[in-house]
Amino acid sequence: MATNAKTRKAARYAVPVAVAGVAAATVAMVPAFANSGGPVLPQVTAQQLIEKVAASDVQQLSGSAKISTDLGLPSLASGLLGGGGVSGGSANPEDKVAQLANGTHTVRVAADGPDRQKLTFVDGKDEYSLIHNGADVWGYDTKANEVWHEKDAAAGREAGKDHKKTADRLAASPQQMAQDVLKAAGPTTDVSVGDTAQVAGRDAYQLVLKPKQAGSTVGSVKIAVDAKTGVPLRVQLLAAEGGKPIVDAGFTKVDFAKPSADTFAFTPPKGAKVTEGAAEAGKGRGDHDKQWKGLESLPGFGALTGGAGDKGDVKVLGEGWATIARIDSGAGKSLKDIENDKDAPKQAKQFLDSLGGKVTGTFGEGRLFKTRLVNALITDDGKVYVGAVTKDALVKAADANK
């Protein structure tokens, strides 16, 4: 199924692993001996299972999936990500897919090759559908009766070219999540075969990825692979601190028959508001602004974020599971300025209160924004250190790069 990093719209909240390629030399050749109550399947090594996934030529499927995300977000931050629902408001796919970063959602999936895919997010009686059909990409919110439309820039290219723009918006399937994780696995990852399992009524092997480096908040990633087709059926992201999965995305039903052509047909309903995506995208302010979108949307934080634009600077520290992004807003205004400002808006004060306790080091002082996966250290001088790493790793990075 042609899709993103997504999810990397939802991926930027889920698996921020920053290395490329599956290196065969680093794969632990551990065969699947233990089944722990799962189906009895022929033994395979991790390398053989990765090759099975890579060799899978399934391009047609339909079914349902459930995606549960428990990042342990503070309530205010959860609200900034759109709360628990997937309906209402703008029909822009970026807004809808980002909401997968919180709560549990049901998704209906259909695919017929690289030119036709459909994801329908179900929220009670309300639905949001993202449809790619040839040259057109549609988003439709039934509750708001709003439609988003964009021409697929890749649709007119010759066969074999990348449908990247469409892929970036169709990232919510367990299949794509697994492919993104496998592409990111490299020398910093230990890969083995775990217990067998049954997913959506199908026998599956489980590929297990574990960070070799210390300091990651990720304990492991488990990918259930269909024993017959090689299609990833479920992805579970487990925290190093234990507890239920941070992300658990898996098919509950799956059928590999060709979906009917009318599955991907779409005509805007009468009376629906239609927004052309290309025109909307032209109003954007660039990638740096997106880094600060949630923070600068709060009154009182505009000066801290530097207002957007070209003032900021992003530097990548480390590699693999221990990657940290150092963001310098270039603003010069600190958290202390907001904390001590009697005229600062209430929302700004609430955001500061939602952060973790104060953190100190040779870098100075700051605040920790903590989730079960991604942690961020916001220093008093306006710098941000963020990654899927522990508090200690962030402090160490801030001390070394102050």
Commentary on this structure:
- By secondary structure, the protein is an alpha+beta fold.
- The chain has two domains: 274 residues, Lipoprotein localisation LolA/LolB/LppX (outer membrane lipoprotein receptor (LolB), chain A), CATH 2.50.20.10; 114 residues, no CATH class.
- The protein has twelve helices and 19 strands.
- Strands 1, 2, 3, 4, 5, 6, 7, 8, 9, 10, 11, 12 and 13 form a 13-stranded mixed beta sheet that branches.
- The protein is globular and about 60 Å long.
- The N terminus is likely disordered.
Using only CA atoms, what is the Rg? 22 Å
What top-tier CATH class of the largest domain fits best? Mainly Beta
Question: What is the total domain count?
Answer: 2
Helix content: 10-25%
Ranges where pLDDT stays below 50 over 5 or more residues in a row are: 1-35, 76-85, 155-168, 279-311
The largest sheet, given as strand count, sense and whether it forms a barrel, is: 13 strands, mixed
The gross shape turns out to be globular
What is the tally of helical segments? 12
Distance between the termini: 43 Å
